[in-house]
């Protein structure tokens, strides 16, 4: 009988932010899978340690079979799609043999999460359960101590990887903005928010929930941002009615 594939959100970084359900699943499954970046961005490059696995490590019990999904972090997604094809086939073999598999995913599995690429390949052929996790947005807002929206206000989630024009168009219509995947796009985000007059309230957060977390006004943000960074722009006060 086919086993169960779990998409497990391990949260933004702090191992104590895993849900009770996630901890229970990680203790029980014999197989785990996780994404790890290729450090030089090439398909045959060296594989760096997986952050998702590092977050989950305190909750892993007993020996596990591990499936590393090595993704070259490039604009062209072609090589990554081939790697997800390979990983999905390996996971399917374990499921067919009756072994439950947990795919670890930073933040929430279905909010910019890598699990969705495995889900779309195996959906319909296997039993799949998604275990939600604390998202980067929740962690960043908590780290900054800022309320993003209230009552009838809207919140726009946008990736900084968008071209400047589309990024500006999306930000322009929102009450509050959460800009994901900032990294090397920080200057672009600064320019767009500056043109729209939204930079004054913008908050820069990096490594939310971790010991080296940093929170500052966007105007005081560093010249370069790490991959795990976000810019939040709360809704203007007085617009909540």
Describe the structure.
- The protein has 241 residues and is an alpha/beta fold.
- The protein has 7 helices and 10 strands.
- The protein has helices spanning 20-28, 51-56, 78-96, 115-122, 136-144, 164-172, 186-195; strands at residues 4-9, 31-38, 65-72, 101-105, 127-131, 155-159, 176-180, 203-206, 214-217, 229-233.
- Strands 3-2-4-1-5 form a 5-stranded parallel sheet, with helices on both faces. It has a 5-stranded mixed sheet with strand order 6-7-10-8-9, sandwiched between helices.
- Helix 3 (78-96) packs across helix 4 (115-122) and helix 6 crosses helix 7.
- The protein starts with a strand and ends in an 8-residue tail after the last strand.
- The model has no long low-confidence stretch (mean pLDDT 92).
């Amino acid at each position: 009988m086919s086993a169960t594939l779990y998409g497990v959100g391990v949260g933004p970084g702090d191992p104590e932010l895993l849900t009770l359900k996630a901890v229970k699943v990680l203790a029980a499954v014999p197989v785990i899978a996780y994404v790890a970046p290729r450090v030089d961005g090439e398909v045959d490059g060296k594989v760096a340690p997986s952050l998702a696995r590092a977050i989950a490590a305190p909750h892993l019990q007993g020996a596990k079979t591990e499936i590393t999904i090595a993704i070259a972090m490039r604009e062209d997604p072609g090589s990554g799609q081939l790697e997800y094809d390979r990983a999905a086939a390996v996971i399917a073999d374990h499921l067919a043999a009756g072994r439950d598999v947990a795919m670890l995913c930073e933040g929430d599995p279905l909010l910019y999460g890598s699990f969705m690429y495995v889900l779309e390949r195996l959906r319909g052929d296997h039993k799949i359960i998604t275990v939600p996790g604390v998202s980067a947005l929740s962690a960043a807002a908590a780290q900054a101590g800022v309320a993003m929206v209230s009552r009838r206000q809207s919140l726009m989630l946008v990736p900084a990887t968008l071209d400047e024009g589309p990024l500006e168009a999306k930000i322009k219509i929102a009450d509050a903005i959460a800009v994901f995947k900032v990294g090397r796009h920080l200057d672009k985000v600064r320019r767009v928010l500056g043109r729209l007059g939204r930079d004054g309230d913008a908050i820069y957060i990096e490594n939310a929930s971790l010991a080296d977390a940093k929170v500052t006004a966007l105007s005081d943000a560093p010249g370069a941002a790490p991959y795990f960074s976000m810019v939040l722009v709360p809704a203007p006060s007085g617009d909540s009615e």
